Amino acid sequence: MLKGLIFDLDGVITDSARFHLAAWNELARQLGIELPPEANDDLRGRSRMDSLAVILNYGGQVGRYSEEELAAFAAQKNAAYTKLIAGMTEADVLPGIHRLLDDAKTSGLTMAIASASRNAPVILNQLRLTDYFTATVDPNDLQHGKPDPEIFVRAQKLLGLQTDEVISFEDASAGVQAIKAAGQYAVGIGDVHVLAAADYNVPDTGALVLSKIKVAFDTQTQTKEEMSHG
User: What is the mean pLDDT of the chain?
Assistant: First the structure.
């Protein structure tokens, strides 16, 4: 039975992902690295240091810098990102999200944020969405980044729920992989080919309708139960 929802933040609740990408691209150019278009999906949903590793890999610069230099690069990127998100407001909540959150709240579902962004609490406050969520995973407490399932497992535990009681939402392939590795039901938002591993796909947040998602979730849950008793 569905009892909770777990959300990535960037690209799902709001398009702060574009600010992350802008800040990373700026740093990459400073390092003499020209990122190809496909790097955008590789960077989505990853932790700060994992994202930096992706950029250095594209530029053939892995192993070139000390830990101190890497930390300085990450701090530089975050400073640029923080400036970019400073002006975010309720208007930056993606289409369909307010409706989805309101429907979930009316249905008595508890909700959590599973984002690699350390700025998630600040962004939620600026978007005036904080009160919808009973838990937000602190990335500082994690050992592994997506596609490792740790962040979604942690969010589920914070809600006090089982794997078959939650639905998790992601817009990145690494995030969908993490959800499935956690044993949860995955809703993929975006290109269905990129997010093929998801259980339920929508092209954008405007197409997120809780009643439709719940029907698909219940159908899959029932099918699994029938197979287990078969």
Answer: 94
